[in-house]
Every structure is written in C-alpha cells, then in structure tokens.
Amino acid sequence: MDGPDTTGPLHRYDELVTDVRVHRSMYTDPAIFTAEMNRVFGGTWTYLAHESEIPQPNDFVRKNLGLRPIIVTRAKDGSIHGLINRCTHRGATVCRTDSGNARSFMCPYHNWTFTNTGKLTGVPMHKGYGASFDRDELGLGRLRIDSYRGFVFGTLDQEIDDLATHLGDVTSYIDQWLDRWPGAELVVRHGQTRLNCKGNWKLVYDNSADGYHPGFSHASLLRMRKDRYGVGVDMQWALGDTDAGLQTVTDLHNGNTFLDQRAEIDSYWDSAAPMPGQDSFEQAIRAQLDEVSAKAALDVVVGSGMNLNIFPNLLIIGNQIQVIEPLAVDDTDIVWYSTSLHAPDLPPEVNSLRVRLQEDFPAFGEPDDLANFEECQRGLGVEEMEWVVTNRHIDTGTETLDANGNVTGPVTDELPIRAFWRRWKKLMTSETKLVAR
After folding, report:
1. 168-427: CATH number
2. Looking at residue 162, what DSSP letter applies?
3. Which residue from 155, 240, 250, 365 has the fewest beta carbons nearer than 10 Å?
4. What is the pLDDT of residues 250-289, one digit of tens each?
5. Global pTM?
C-alpha cells in the first residue's frame, strides 16, 4: 500500500497525524525535524531556564531554543533577557561558557562586544565600515521573554498571548507543586544529570504522561525494590491493573498535560525508596519540628505525585525538572535538574535528602526509558509499517471532564499523546512570522 503524500511544505499533516494514529515519518524525517525546530520551538512559549539559576545581577546561563544557542541573562536592574548567542558580524557564538557573571560578551573572533541586554557597544576599528554603520541595528537577536513563578520561557512569536494566558490551567498545577511547603523558595542550582538517547525528541514527550508503561518497562526495578523493601515502596501501584486504579491523566490544552498519582499516595515519605543517610537525616528533622510539621517536611522530600508536562520541552517530574533538548531527528539530550526548597522554618536536612532521592530515578529508572526510545527509533525506520497507534481509551467511555472542563481519563489513557499532536499540528501548519528583536 502506498503511504500518504509527504511532499510539499506542510506535508499534508491532516493525513499524517490523527487522533488514532501518527505516521512514522513524524519521528524519522529530517525535513520535518528542521521545520519543527522553527515552527514549534520558535513559535510557542518554550522553557529556557529557572530564575534561580541567575540569582545575581549580571548572572547568565547558556541554554537552547530548539537548535538556537541562547544566553539567558539577568541585567544590572534585575530584568531577564533571552539573547541569541550569535554575533551579528560573522555569526560566531559570543558566549562559550555555560554560566557566570558578565556585564558584556565579547566575540572572540573579531572582538565585537555586546551588553548583557544585547546592545552592540564595541567594534574595533569601526571607521572601516564607513559613515552608514549603525550599531543600533546590529545588536544580538532578542527573544520575547516571560516567566511564571521563576520558570522563564522565550518565543520568537511576537504576537502570541502572554505566558500566563498561554499556560491557562497549568499555572494552578505549578502553584500546587511549588506550595507544598508554604512560603518556600524553589532553587535550581544543584547540578544536572545529562542523558542522551539516539531517538527523536517527541518519543520523550510521548512518554512523559504515559501511565501504561511503568509496570512493564520498569518491572525489574520495581520488583527488586518490592522484594527488598516491601509492598508500598516506590511506584508499586504500577505492577497491578492500572486501568482499575485512581490515577488519572488530563489534557490541559495547548499540548500541556498532567499525570496525577496523588489519589493513591497515603504517605509520601513512607512510600519513598530508601536513600543513603536517611535515618540520621530523618532524626535531625524530627528533632527540630513538632510531629505534624516533621511529617509535612519529610513529605516534601519525596516526589509530589505529579507529572506536569509543559509543551514542548519542560517536564516537572516528582521533585525534579526535566528538559528535552533536541539535537537531530534521531538524537536527543534529556537533562534532569535537581531542586531544593528554602524557607526559614524548613530544616536544611530536607534538602540533603532531596538531593539523595534525586540521584535515584535518573540512574535506575531512566535507562529503561532511554532503551525503549532508541528501540522505537530503530523500529520506526521500517518503511513497510507506517503507523504508530495512539487510540488507547478513546472508545472505552472512561474519559470525563474535570471541574475545569478538561478531558480526564485513566492513567493508561493515551489522551496526552493525542493532546500533544493536536498542538504540534496546529503550530506546524501556522504561518506565524518568527522575529528576533
């Protein structure tokens, strides 16, 4: 059977992407990958950094917007900027350090110099360009920047709604995630775990709210922990009939989705996987707080029971932030950032335990996922088998509307994948003009 026509600038996406199946070329076609680096990563609010990564005036970090190298800076006045890391002279990157503190960036090639807000201020022997030379026209490219509760996003679409409007109901879930200890400040400055897989970036997002796979993909890890530590430790729910459970997935619109485990968690601390130094840290926390407060403090050590997936590249998983960084059609970096909570009434031992726990899943669980992503990419190379199936629970009558009118289904429902592809297709068929100002 002949496959769908993939010629032309928009590749006839209505044929290639439906609610029940997706064509294999969406994961394997280099031309589609190139287009989505512009239309998806440039055409919507894409996560760049957390404000706590640049706490002081003139701090900066290097990040990416799709394949575009970006510098996220905090200027002297505290304002945050997203600059395209590309000299306007000959195209070299002007910043080649991952993070630091700098009032300006000097291109090593010809020493053109730019402020940390993007303005061109220094051009050696500028008279050689003549009287028509205008520095104001040659500043670094600038993204449109907005943030919500410390999460910094950027876009090249100058007409898109502001970030809070774009996020919609996502903001309430960010609030719930951040406010588990009232008044605490989230800090993302504790290093990262960078993993690579030879698979398409969308395979990672497909998996981000997939409650169907854990009991199978991670079975050896979960059974080992069950045998060693007993029933109830670390995602034991995944080993049963998850269709009959209380966990759900929800479509939050604009490609954003949510996996909610909280209905099946009685005690976060008691369900955590054991970690080094646990007993002494626990004793120190209990010595500083009353019984109720100590229980609450120990609970915020552990994952929140929430997987919040913010299109196209930010995944909030447990107590960690995961960022998807596409490199090529079949090459993706997945970066896990550890987080801590800081409040005057929160013992520091809480964060010692959080770091210990945050070493856990990226080392013991994520390799299972990476192996699956790479084997999916390999299988998707089979031209004679064209389709990926995405219709789980679409016809079972189990989907309902939550209190906000959002479609919700059992945790094994593939509605998050369908939600992702609807947003992806809308952006890929958009004629929005992208501008770096």
Report:
1. 3.90.380.10
2. P
3. 240
4. 999 999 999 999 998 888 898 887 888 899 999 999 999 9
5. 0.94
Could you tell me the two tokens for 225? 């922990």
The token pair at 118 is 């993007």
163 to 46, 90, 153, 406, 435: CA distances (angstroms): 10, 33, 8, 19, 17
Q: What CA–CA distances, in Å, run from 281 to 35, 185, 189, 347, 348?
A: 50, 21, 21, 10, 9
Of 1.10.10.10, 3.40.50.720, 2.102.10.10, 3.10.180.10, which CATH number belongs to 46-151?
2.102.10.10
Q: Are 180 and 300 in contact (CB under 8 A)?
A: yes
Contact partners, residue 363, CB within 8 Å, separation at least 6: 193
To 10 degrees, what angle do helices 349-358 and 278-288 make?
150
Q: Are 79 and 72 in contact (CB under 8 A)?
A: no
For 18-31, the DSSP string reads -SSEEETHHHH-HH
Amino acid at the residue 299: D
